[in-house]
Amino acid sequence: MKLCMIGTGYVGLVSGVCFADLGNDVICVDKDTKKIDQLIKGKVPIYEPGLTELVTKNYKNKRLNFSTNLKKSVKDSDIIFICVGTPTKKHGSSADLSQIYNVAKEISSSINKFKIIITKSTVPLTTGDEIEKILSKKNNKKKFSVVSNPEFLREGEAIRDFIYPDRVVVGSNNKKSNRILKSLYSPLISKGASYLQTSRRAAELIKYASNAFLATKITFINEIANLCEKTGVNVEDISIGMGLDKRIGSRFLRAGPAYGGSCFPKDTKAITSTADKFKSNLSVVKSVIKSNKNRSNLLLNRVYEILGKRIKNKKITFLGVTFKANTDDMRDSSSLLMIPALSKKGAIIKYFDPTGSKKEFSNIKNVYYSKTIKYSLEDSDLVIIHTEWNDFKSINFKNLLKNKKVIIYDMRNIYTPTKIKNQGFKYYSIGR
Ligand code: UDX
Question: Within a 10 A sphere around the Cβ of 335, how many other Cβ atoms?
Answer without folding.
Answer: 26
